[in-house]
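User: I've been trying to design a sequence by hand for this structure and keep getting stuck. Would you show me what you'd pick, starting by listing the structure so we're on the same page?

Assistant: Good idea, let's start from the same input. This is the structure you sent:
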């Protein structure tokens, strides 16, 4: 228990032999339940998880993802009707991706009635001493979801490679547009915490299974107008190796963000009547698209110099108009999300 709230931690793990055991050992004592989800690892991860669990009678999931199946295997937090082990080992029979592993842990925590559920990666990148600080906004009720941010301070950013920093900055901007949370940073940070009420609101089965899970989750949180806190936090880099294949990850995530953006606009701004934001974005995209087409035609045209200059002028005007419309849409979006964003720098 932490400040009167039950706390669970989901630890997704895939081929984390030699790392996941240490993660389990260092989880703070105030955590009531630890759901360690082995996503069908091919090394000794599962054996290591079992060795570090307080009991070894593990949950092995069925091929179905139904909540009923999970509820039948896992009890409720200490103090409830059923007393069960603190560390709950769970193994997927097939690889579902990190998002699928987190979703399994979320479902177990929700079925257990856990008040606040955090996520800590199985590779040891997340400092357990920072867990209390991370969950505080959810525990005190000021946020429904909290996430770490390694980009707020220069000292934190200096621990990241230039390539990581560039990629993270780019994904921050794209995720801000897609999610509507315009103050968040470091969207790929998986050190997170979520309330029981938020899990009840979300359709977990609709969430993305792979590394874009955290981006997709932010989009859906915003569509439901749930409050998000960005918590300053340093990164911890050690012996872990990333399994992300960037040639596949970047196109998939880009497509996910575009679909999520359109879904959010429809769900949040069209369902109960069209918000001015929607035509602003639509006109902006149309104008910029027209400008690009006009510019290409002007460059390829065999007409007189005057005609080409006129075409270029039209392209410039359309670009300026489009940018103005897009900025207006962004402004509307910022206003709508201002009350549901919280930043904790200290």
């Amino acid at each position: 228990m932490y400040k009167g709230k039950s706390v669970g931690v989901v630890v997704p793990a895939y081929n984390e032999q030699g790392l996941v055991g240490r993660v389990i050992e260092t989880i703070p004592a105030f955590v009531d339940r630890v759901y360690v989800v082995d996503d069908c690892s091919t090394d000794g991860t599962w054996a290591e998880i079992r060795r570090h669990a307080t009991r070894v009678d593990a949950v092995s999931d069925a091929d179905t993802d139904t909540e009923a199946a999970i509820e039948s295997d896992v009890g409720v937090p200490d103090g409830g009707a059923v007393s069960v082990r603190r560390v709950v080992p769970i193994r997927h029979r097939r690889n579902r991706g990190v998002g699928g592993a987190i979703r399994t842990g979320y479902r177990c925590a929700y079925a257990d009635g856990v008040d606040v559920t955090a996520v800590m990666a199985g590779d040891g990148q997340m400092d357990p001493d920072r867990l209390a600080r991370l969950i505080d906004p959810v525990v005190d009720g000021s946020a429904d979801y909290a996430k770490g941010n390694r980009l707020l301070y220069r000292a934190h950013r200096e621990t990241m490679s230039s390539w990581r920093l560039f990629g993270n900055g780019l994904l921050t901007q794209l995720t801000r547009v897609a999610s509507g949370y315009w103050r968040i940073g470091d969207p790929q940070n998986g050190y997170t915490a979520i309330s029981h009420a938020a899990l009840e609101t979300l359709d977990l089965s609709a969430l993305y299974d792979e590394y874009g899970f955290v981006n997709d989750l932010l989009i859906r949180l915003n569509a439901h107008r749930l409050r998000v806190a960005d918590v300053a936090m340093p990164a911890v880099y050690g012996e872990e190796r990333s399994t992300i294949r960037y040639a596949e990850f970047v196109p998939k995530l880009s497509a996910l963000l575009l679909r999520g953006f359109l879904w959010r606009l429809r769900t949040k701004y069209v369902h109960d009547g069209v918000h001015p934001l929607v035509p602003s974005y639509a006109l902006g995209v149309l104008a910029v698209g027209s400008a690009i087409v006009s510019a290409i035609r002007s460059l390829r045209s065999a007409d007189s110099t005057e005609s080409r200059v006129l075409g270029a002028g039209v392209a410039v005007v359309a670009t300026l108009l489009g940018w103005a419309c897009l900025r207006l849409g962004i402004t509307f979006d910022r206003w709508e999300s201002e009350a549901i964003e919280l930043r904790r720098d200290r």
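That's my pick for every position. To get oriented when you compare it with your attempt: Confidence is low (pLDDT under 50) at residues 62-83. The chain is about 50% helix and 10% strand.
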